[in-house]
Amino acid sequence: LKPGGVAVHTTEFNLTSDKHTLDNNESCVIFRKQDIERLRKELESDKYRVETIDYEAGNDKLEQYVDMPPYVDEPHLRLQIANEFTSTSIGLIIHAPR
């Protein structure tokens, strides 16, 4: 990033576990809260500013629905992956130091 620039990233987030995750699959990795927090700490130690991260899973009807394989072509926010993990997306907003 250029000095003062902003990066916005989304990635897969593991709602099932903060200990176990899918991390050895060539096509998909699901980050845990501990992984996101480690990244946040590393960025902040390099003087980047990370916006507050919202880890709330939510409880609306659509947020409670977990799409199972074979996935349907309908709106979903959560997927069952590898028959073990419930995944959703998480966003990171990162500000580069000036």
Radius of gyration, CA atoms, in whole angstroms: 15 Å
- The separation of the N and C termini measures 10 Å
Give the DSSP E fraction (strand runs of 2 or more residues).
25-35%
N-to-C SSE series? EHEHEEE
Annotation, overall tally of beta strands: 5
Q: Please count the helical segments.
A: 2
Q: What oligomeric state is this?
A: single chain
- Overall mean pLDDT score? 93
Helix content: 10-25%
Global geometry: elongated
Helix vs. strand class: alpha+beta
The largest pleated sheet is described as:
5 strands, mixed
Tell me what you see in this structure.
By secondary structure, the protein is of the alpha+beta class. Helices cover 17% and strands 29% of the residues. The chain contains two helices and five strands, in the order E-H-E-H-E-E-E. The chain has helices spanning 33-45, 61-64, and strands at residues 6-14, 49-50, 66-67, 78-81, 85-95. Strands 1, 2, 3, 4 and 5 form a five-stranded mixed beta sheet that branches. A hairpin with a 3-residue loop joins strand 4 (78-81) and strand 5 (85-95). The longest helix has 13 residues, at 33-45. The N and C termini lie close together (10 Å). The mean pLDDT is 93.
Could you write a compact summary of the structure shown?
By secondary structure, the protein is an alpha+beta fold.
Which features does this protein show?
alpha+beta, about 100 residues, 2 helices, five-stranded mixed sheet
